[in-house]
Amino acid sequence: MTERRPEVSVLMAVRNAEHLVEEQIVCVLSQRGVRLELLICDDASTDGTWAKLAAWRHDPRVRLLRNRRRLFPAATRNRLLALARGPYCSPCDADDLLLPGALSALVKALRANPGAGAASGLLVQTFADRRRPPRLIGVTPVTQWDLMTGRICHAASLIRTGLLKAVGGYAPHLRLSEDWDLMLRLRERATFVGVPGLLAMVWRLQQRSRSRIVRGRTRAAREIVRAAVARGRGSQRPLSRER
User: Fold this and answer.
1) Distance between CA 181 and CA 176 in Å, rounded?
2) pTM of the entire structure?
């Protein structure tokens, strides 16, 4: 019997997440109403992450890779993207929780909007130190992506694989905010569609992740904006003179 092609390729980059990754794997594989493959790459973890992942190697939906040296999220996701067989890609990190029905709803949204390059749901951000209450992130992203507030949630999105490859995937030179850069480049090629009321993901922000983001986000944002401006200038054509 011929194996059916997956509809969604879930791309999961993992680094030192031995206490979190199994929950996310269960969440992904428990999705209903959609055929999926789960591609996981361990980015040279130094804890017991690889041992946790190895327990899933016999599931036919799961494919495991391991970086010999640390490549960081962008390059790691690109390795997974090269293997993706589904027409849609879902970027899921190990410290997130993909909620029931999310992938099926996002697939339906893209099928109903063939001109859209990506669909997005809402995301709940939680904090490991519990000093702040959870917050809801996301709006209906029909025409734009808000760089400053990140209102289109990369982690809660589904992207057409062909478009993701057409823009060159993730920028491997970026070690932070590579998702911002990607969403900007996608928006230059296609529109986005939001699924009203869809709670798609829980982002479990760890203390070490929060510190890294605070230190590097401003610098990364400046680099991304400069690159976007340069692309915009390069695409401008001189206006023809009226005769």
Assistant:
1) 10
2) 0.83
